[in-house]
Known about the structure:
- By secondary structure, the chain is mostly helical.
- The protein has a domain at 34-88.
- It contains four helices and no strands.
- The chain has helices at residues 2-22, 33-46, 51-59, 61-82.
- The longest helix is centred in the C-terminal third of the chain and has 22 residues, at 61-82.
- The protein is flat and about 60 Å long.
- Residues 18-86 form the MrpA C-terminal/MbhE domain.
- Keywords: Membrane, Transmembrane, Transmembrane helix.
- It holds the Pfam family MbhE.
- The chain crosses the membrane at residues 7-27, 65-82.
Amino acid sequence: xxxxxxxxxxxxxxxxxxxxxxxxxxxxxxxxxxxxxxxxxxxxxxxxxxxxxxxxxxxxxxxxxxxxxxxxxxxxxxxxxxxxxxxx
Length: 88
């Protein structure tokens, strides 16, 4: 019974994610004025040769740290849920 419930929940989750992904829309590349700012000023302001690195670690450093903390917490929680317990 528990295995069937897991399969049903997994299928429902996959279907829900499929509906969400098909509804996504993306903007035109280069449409935001901030794009040009980052491309022109990232190396001089941050010293990074890669624009993506400059944005992740210099412009949005605290946000990236928060995302890493959330991922770590999710991985830790998943590990604690699925670990095997010893019967003493």
